[in-house]
Amino acid sequence: MPQLDRIIVFSQIFWLFIIFTLFYTILTHFFLPKFIKAIKIRKQIIDANSVEISLMAENISRKQTLLKKVLLKDLESIKILLTQHFTYLVKEKGYLNTTIIDEKLSFVILNTLTYCNLQLLNSVIVYPKILSSKI
């Protein structure tokens, strides 16, 4: 059988070894550094993006807390003004005409529902309107 001949086997093993060594040397010398460089650059980009994202998240959370404080302060001042105005309407004029206040409150609630989150809405205390005009 010619495939089991000893003369043919040694030449095939020799050329296999030479070609494998040459192929391995070319891959490790030329292509492997390029792959490693690309992987390192991608890792640096990912690290830079994660640092930037964390800074942006901190900045956004800081702005959200500041906005929440300002909104709560303004809502408290609106509550005080509405209480004073409501008291003035009831005591001075003797009747309960709150249509203007209701319109403004509905506009504020609509904007709050549209542009604010649920946590801010939970911090606003809303009392039900008295249906009867008797005081």
UniProtKB/TrEMBL annotation:
The family database entries (Pfam families) matched by this protein are listed as:
YMF19
**Ranges for the ATP synthase YMF19-like N-terminal domain?**
2-74
Task: Set out the biological process GO terms recorded for this chain's protein.
Answer: ATP biosynthetic process
Q: What is its main location?
A: mitochondrion
Q: Please name the InterPro entries in this protein's record.
A: YMF19-like_N
Key words, A-Z: ATP synthesis, Membrane, Mitochondrion, Transmembrane, Transmembrane helix
Would you tell me the Gene Ontology cellular component terms? mitochondrial membrane
Transmembrane region(s): 12-32
Cellular location(s) = Mitochondrion membrane
Q: What is this protein called?
A: ATP synthase F0 subunit 8
Q: Name the gene behind this protein.
A: atp8
